[in-house]
Amino acid sequence: MRILFLLPFLAIVPQDPPKPPEKLVAAFYAAKWDAEKGEGMSREGGGDGLQDHPESFKEFSYREISYHLKHLEAMVDAGIDIALCEFISHPAAVDGLVLALQSAAKNKKRIPKVAPVADDVSTALAFIGRVPSAFQASVNNRPLVWLPYARGAAPETLQSMRMIAPMFVVGDPAWKPDLAAVAGGALDGPRDYPAVTIGPGFKDGGSRVRSRDGQAWYERSWYAAMRIKPRIIAIESWNRYDEGSTICPTREHGRSLISKTKRYAEQFKKGEEIARPKGKYSDGIGVSYHLKFDPPNEGLRPVDTAVTPCEVVTVAGQKLLMAKEVTGKEGRVLAFSIDDSYAYYERREYEIQMQVMDRGKGEIVIEYDAAAPAKGETDRTRRLSEPWHYADTGDWAAATFKLPEASFCNRQEGGSDFRIVTKNAGLTVRWVQVRAK
Predict the structure, then answer these.
(1) CB 426 within 8 A of CB 346
(2) Helix 65-77 to helix 256-269 angle, to the nearest 10 degrees?
(3) Mean per-residue pLDDT for 273-284?
(4) Distances from the Cα of 111 to the Cαs of 63, 78, 84, 101, 262, in angstroms?
């Protein structure tokens, strides 16, 4: 009877609230160079294969224990929890890594955990079997595996493999992972997923380039990532020397990003946010695109893509921005990008005004990148403004649009923030301006 009497009391004893999921910082870690043997040091056809260069080429080889130890120890200094190993199909590099991990444990050196980056699940399992479990990164007591986009992505294969070896999978949505993520943060910036990739810039020697802009691109990427509030932030990259996306110590950039990464990582894990980085338009009352001036871009620029083609034409001595026709598409579209120093990953009301040629029938709406979708809708990157209606005066007219809960996160085509859309046969503007309310 005494035990039964205690049961109701035990049932109402307050329970500790569940702990929030652990936030983690990872970095993509490469090992494909051997300076002595010349592996990976040159491009096909000749020329330097590296865009960023290590501080020293001594023992600059994926075979060397010292190569891995140096990088792993520096990652700890940068606040990185997980080294995402991109060389798991390279046995000699994995051998060097394992020996380095064992050496660090023997000498009680602090290093991050490691996890495989693989195009297929079987290769990831081979890495898990090769690396002692004490060194492996895990989430929810399952070894972490990162699966990027692959043409052979097969969710059903992944599920069957999990029956053999339970894994916590982060990767491209095509895999149907535990946490979705897309690659390309160094070049394109953060994307709104539960795991976010970011980077300091990108330069692989080809046409794809993302300037570091000092360190401003990296700072803006961290700012955006913290606003997204993912569970994992993965840096592209720790040491992809051939992509110019390194945050590790280099001749070009020194150790400048080590302390900055550590500070941001600590703030992210505490659930803090950082202030929007300052820039040219941070203190401006608005941004504009006005063809009366040269250049016309003052914090606002048109984005010319395959689905938002445009051109500047001169009529009667006046320059005009005209939307071009897209085959098979009704109407016309003009896309614009707002300078990130003026508006980026915030939740505010803005007003857009423009001078538009009032010719024809129908209406114009703004499709804008918002912090939340409109009521009853699901797509926050295409939230609609109230329409402005043509009066068919054949003259220039001023059109004004209110944009509640806008965020301008560069999530539309070509990194644009909003689109001017009409089903009319023409869309021509002389100027556009954006102001925060």
Answers:
(1) no
(2) 60
(3) 91
(4) 18, 11, 13, 8, 14
Return residue ranges of the chain for CATH 2.60.120.260: 287-436
CA angle 174, 120, 175 (to 5 degrees): 15
Instruction: Specify the DSSP class assigned to residue 135.
Output: G
Length reported for the chain: 437
Question: What pLDDT is recorded for position 13?
Answer: 52
For residue 114, what are the CA distances in angstroms to 150, 212, 324? 21, 27, 50
Predicted pLDDT at 410: 92
- Check residue 433 and give its pLDDT: 98
From 239, 218, 187, 209, select the one nearest 27 (Cα to Cα): 239
The CB-based long-range contact list for 389-393 (8 Å cut-off, 24+ gap) reads 389/362, 389/363, 390/358, 390/359, 390/360, 390/361, 390/362, 390/363, 390/364, 390/424, 391/358, 392/358, 392/359, 392/360, 392/361, 393/358, 393/359
Tokens of 426: 């023409």
Q: What is the mean pLDDT of residues 29-45?
A: 94
In CATH, which superfamily holds the domain spanning 24-269? Glycosidases (3.20.20.80)
Q: Which fold does the domain 287-436 belong to in CATH?
A: Jelly Rolls (2.60.120)
- Strand segments, DSSP code E, in 261-309 are 287-290, 297-298, 300-302
User: Is the pLDDT assigned to residue 227 strictly greater than 60?
Assistant: yes
Query: What is the arithmetic mean of pLDDT over 151-162?
Result: 81
Q: Which amino acid is at 409?
A: C
